[in-house]
Amino acid sequence: MSQERIISVLDIGPDAVLLLVAKYFQDGRIEPIHEFVAITKLCEKLLKTGVLLEEAITRTVKAAKEMQSIALKEGAQNLIVTASSVVRSAENRSKFLVKCFQSLKIYPQVLSGKEEAKFSFIGATLDIDTPRPIFLINIEEGSSEIAFGSKTSIEGTYSFDIGCFRINEILDQASQNKGFLKSNPVLPALSHIKKELNKVSPEISAWIKQNNPLVIVSGGVAVTYAAIIKKQFVYDYKQINFTKSNVKNTMSVFKTLFKMKNGERINVPGMEIGRAEIMPAGLLSLHSTLQTFNLDEYTITVNGLRMGIIKYFIER
Question: Which of 89, 274, 276, 315 is a Cys-bridge partner for 265, taking CB atoms 3.0 to 4.6 Å apart?
Answer without folding.
Answer: 276
